[in-house]
Every structure is written in structure tokens, then in C-alpha cells.
Amino acid sequence: MARTPTGSRNKTIHCDICGEDYAATYKRCPFCNGRPPEQPSARGSRPPRRNTRGGGYSTPSPVRIISTVISLALIVAAVCIVISIIKPMVDKGKPITPPSATPAPTPTAQPTPSVAPSAQPSPGVPADQTAASFSLDKSDFTVSNYQESHSINATFSPAGSVGYLEWTSSNPEVVSVDDNGRITALGRSNGVSRATITATLKGTNITQTCIVRCNFDAPAGATVTPTAPSTAAPSGSLSLNKTDFTMEKQGQTVTMRVNGTSSTPTWSIDDTSIATVSSDGVVTAVANSNGKAVTLTCTVDGQTLTCLVRCKF
Q1: C-beta atoms surrounding 132 within 10 Å
Q2: Are residues 138 and 208 in the same domain?
Q3: What is the spatial distance between Cα 255 and Cα 276, in angstroms, rounded to a whole number?
Q4: Residue 3 carries which DSSP code?
Q5: What is residue 203's DSSP assignment?
Q6: What is the rounded distance in angstroms from the CA atom of residue 29 to the CA atom of residue 16?
């Protein structure tokens, strides 16, 4: 039973059943309604808990449980979003360690190719020789008289280039040749009736050949007539590369040069209706000279050199 304290009814009353204090304006305890707690119906059941903080206990509802779970899920999602945004920003300021610290292999040093030196003229090639090849105006012909002479002329390529030839005869006792390509027929000797004349571009292996045949016998006691060297100079040490030559077709050219000087020569010819000569010494056949020889004149270093030119075509 509740005990009502003496005095004013505004005082509180202490409930002997549940132990709570309540206002004296209540007829019975609002907490336990003035009833003693129910006894457990089965052995081992726990007695109901008593409210010692001014209120009773209640079981949470399913709605409240769901709302709590949803709230926790939202909090976790928000934390994940914040981490995903902040982490890349933090990582930008940190050095990235490569997965493998193995250094890249150093490429093997390759040997530097040596630069080939500039091509130098082969030994024996004249310094001013520019011809790459040449051709001869004769390849096979026959002579019928003792000491009959003919010139074998060369044309150098490319056009206008300069070239120097060396001449040899396979049988000089039958047909001789000088260093200007002029042959002299001596006749059959010891059963041999022909000779192969070979012209070689100086300092190279470039050659051309011409066969010269003799249809007569060499006279008794015939000997090879010595040929005048082209380097012979009338005076001093200067000379022309040719002293006597024949051109056998119209328009044929022969390049003249002076040996023994680096000065520029002056060229002239006494009959330009037969042959002409350019300022650089190129002689061109114009017309048949009918056996007449025209004189080519070269003046250089105070000396005058001459050469006989014939046109036979």
C-alpha cells in the first residue's frame, strides 16, 4: 500500500510495490497501478525488470530496427564516398613506386662505322684525265704497202672529257704503233700477217683493240721504224700530246694538250676550212684535206709548238 505523508497533498508518495515516487494527486501508483508484479509462470523464467529510472522498458519495433539499419548503411556509404574522393588527392603527392625495381638493360654500344676516305686517283692516272671510257674508229682493216701508215683515233666518253691512251702492238715486226695511235705496216714476217693493236686508258684496265692485216711480204732487211715520242719538245721542256694525226670522219674530234706547264695555251690552225680548234685545244674535222696537212699551232710560256693535222674521209 502507498503511504501518504502527512501534510500537504502536493507532496510525493513512495510506492512500496514498485519503489517509485509519484504525486499525491494520484489515487494509486501510475507505474505499477498498485499491483504487485506477476510471479513467473515457469521455472527458470526471469522476473520482470523493475524500472529504477522513472520509466518502463519497451521492446523496439521492426520499423525502428529497419530505420536504424538504413541509417548505419547510409553512414557507411558516405564514409566510403569521402575516402574514394580524398584518397586520390592524397596519393598525388606521393611518389609512385614501380612494381619492379630492375633497371632497364643498357643498349650495347655499336661500333661507329668508319667513314671511307675520299676516293683518290689510282696510281698512274693523269691528274686531268676525266674520261670514263672510249671507243676506236677502226676495229679491223688491211694495208697493202710497205710502211703505209694510218691513224687509229679514239673518242672519249662522256663527251668533252679528257683521256690519255697507251698503245701496243702484238706483233711490232709486222705492224708497229706509236703513242699517238698511228700504225706503220711492215708486211708479213715469218708467216705472221697481222697484228692486234691495243689501246689502254692510262691508269685503268679499260681497253679497246683493232686488228691490222698486211697482204704483202716485208722486204728483205725491213726493220721497225722508230717512232718519235710525243713528249719531244722543239725547245725547252714543253711538248704536245700529238705531233701528227689524221681524222677519218667529218665531225671527229681530238683533244690536244701541252705537257710540262700549267699555263693556259693559245691555239690556232692555219686552215679552218679543213679543221678547227677551240680555245681549250679540241680539234674538229671539217672537210677532206685531200692529203694536205694543216698546221696546228700552240703558243704557251713564250714557246711555239706545232702539230700536223690531216683529214681523210
Answers
A1: 13
A2: yes
A3: 12
A4: B
A5: T
A6: 9
Q: Are 14 and 24 in contact (CB under 8 A)?
A: no
Measure the CA–CA gap between 199 and 183, rounded to whole angstroms.
12
Q: What is the CATH number of the domain that holds 301?
A: 2.60.40.1080
Beta bridge partners of 197: 169, 210
Question: What is the C-alpha separation between 136 and 139, in angstroms, rounded?
Answer: 7
- Give the per-residue pLDDT at 226: 43
188, 218 contact by CB (below 8 A) = yes
- Write down the residue that cell numbers 674520261 correspond to: 131
Same domain? For 209 and 243 the reply is no
DSSP string, 154-171: EEEESTT----EEEEES-
What integer pLDDT is reported at residue 236 of this predicted model? 44
| Local structure of 69: helix, strand or coil | helix
Closest CA to 199 of 212, 190, 186, 187: 212
Residues in a beta bridge with 295: 308
Is residue 231 a part of any domain in this protein? no
pLDDT attached to residue 64: 84
Q: What DSSP string describes 230-273?
A: TT--SSTT-EES-SEEEE-STT-EEE--EES--SPPEEEES-TT
Q: What is the pLDDT of residue 56?
A: 47
For residue 91, the surrounding DSSP H or E stretch is helix 62-91
Place of cell 522498458: 57
Q: Are 247 and 311 in contact (CB under 8 A)?
A: yes
Give the number of domains in the chain: 3
Asked, for residue 224, whether it belongs to a domain, the answer is no
Answer yes or no: is 8 within a domain. yes
Domain containing 23 equals: 1-38
Low-confidence ranges of the chain (pLDDT < 50): 1, 6, 8, 54-57, 113-119, 225-236
Is 151 contained in some domain? Answer: yes
Question: For residue range 222-261, what is the model confidence (pLDDT) as tens digits?
Answer: 655 444 444 333 334 688 898 888 898 999 999 998 988 8
Residues 207 and 142 in one domain: yes
Statement to judge: residues 210 and 243 lie in one domain: no
